[in-house]
Design goal:
Number of domains: 3
Number of strands: 8
Largest sheet: 6 strands, mixed
CATH superfamily of the largest domain: Ribonuclease H-like superfamily/Ribonuclease H
CATH topology of the largest domain: Nucleotidyltransferase, domain 5
Strand content: 5-15%
CATH architecture of the largest domain: 2-Layer Sandwich
């Protein structure tokens, strides 16, 4: 695994007074490869000086100046980093235990800790020590109590002042922006455009409670080609895999990350849009020591399809299928490869049968029984 540094900050609090307080609690971690750190710092400093002069980058300074937020976000996303986030919908937390601050923070600490240190074994994590960031300070104590050096060799945890740590300032901006996307008091007609700007930077948004419900992704503005049943089936196949699969190997970890990003694009992009293989590969290479190749990526997609997961593909890239035409296009692509290949095998077989006076049938092996049956039917 590649060594990375993460900067984390939060939006919201543990209050359940939704009439006056946030409806969501959000923790955002900015992930930067260690070799990109200097370039990242230089880029952030230029943006800070340009838009905040002598002050630090803070979402609360932008507030509901939506145009200014869009301008700054469009600058920030040009830098080399990715975002991991936990988004908690407090309105759906029905257990009384969550109303106690310690219980609330302890449970969410576990979600953030498990994902970050599982995905990034060599992780250096920095958070803000000032202001109202109680969650991050609790998280520091959680890491101290649960972090096992022998399992996470090379990892460390630092607490910094945000005014001195540019990465934490970007985490503040991202956590706050996600607040303007999800929180009921902050949402607006600009929320979708905010998500559109930052979506390519998001590795994963871990919703709690889980939003693995197909009705969360129902499209209301569609055309005659859109098929809700195909969309629902496609999403269910992905959610089942995500719920039942542990990332024991690099291949499975890549598969899980790919599907999470695929769902993110389905949620934030128009349902007709494809995303290129290269864009997915760039996401998957964030914490890889060796780069994932195009061939490895294509094989990974193939293995997911073997497991019954529906993935549409075209020259434009990949997406979650939402129409009969997209499924048909996938079948047509397979047909254009499989049928000619079967015919070539058939021609080769017939040539050898002729040359050996029918004494050698290259398909006369137990392992080729199904293939032989298919070719016989194809000839007929």
């Amino acid at each position: 695994m590649k060594q990375v540094i993460a900067f984390a900050d939060e939006f919201g609090n543990n209050s359940f007074k939704f009439s006056s307080e946030s409806t969501h609690f959000i923790a955002a971690a900015i992930i930067v490869n260690i070799e990109d750190l200097d370039e990242f710092y230089n880029g952030v400093e230029n943006i800070r000086a340009k838009y905040f002069q002598t002050g630090e980058i803070k979402s609360s300074k932008i507030k509901d100046n939506y145009t200014r937020r869009k301008i700054i976000l469009n600058e920030i996303v040009k830098l080399k980093f990715n975002v991991y986030s936990v988004v908690v919908d407090k309105t759906k937390l029905y257990s009384e235990g969550f109303k106690f601050k310690k219980s609330f923070y302890k449970y969410l600490n576990g979600i953030l800790y498990k994902e970050l240190y599982k995905s990034f074994p060599q992780l250096e994590l920095k958070v803000d020590e000032h202001g109202g960031n109680e969650f991050m300070l609790e998280f520091k104590e959680y890491v101290k109590q649960n972090h096992i050096r022998t399992l996470f060799e090379g990892s460390d945890f630092f607490v910094s002042e945000s005014k001195e740590e540019l990465g934490v300032q970007v985490a503040d901006l991202m956590a706050g922006t996600l607040g303007y996307i999800y929180d009921e008091h902050k949402k607006s007609s600009f929320s979708d455009s905010f998500m559109g700007i930052i979506s390519n930077k998001i590795i994963s948004i871990n919703h709690f409670p889980k939003l693995y419900k197909t009705n969360e992704y129902t499209e209301f503005s569609t055309d005659e080609f859109y098929n809700q049943a195909i969309s629902d089936l496609s999403l269910r196949s992905i959610f089942d895999y995500l719920d039942t699969t542990s990332s024991d190997t690099q291949l499975i970890q890549d598969s899980i990350s790919f599907l999470k990003v695929l769902v993110r694009y389905h949620e934030s992009n128009h349902y007709k849009n494809y995303t290129t293989a290269q864009e997915f590969i760039e996401h998957l290479n964030v914490n890889r020591e060796s780069k994932l190749s195009k061939e490895q990526f294509v094989n990974m997609v193939g293995s997911l399809r073997d497991k019954g997961i529906l993935i549409a593909s075209s020259r434009e890239g990949y997406k979650i299928p939402t129409s009969n035409q997209e499924i048909k296009k996938y079948v047509q692509h397979g047909n254009s490869i499989v049928i000619p290949l079967l015919r070539r095998i058939s021609v080769c077989r017939e040539a050898i049968l002729l040359a050996t006076n029918n004494s050698l049938d290259i398909l006369d092996e137990p392992e080729f029984e199904t293939l032989k049956d298919i070719i016989e039917k194809l000839r007929a």
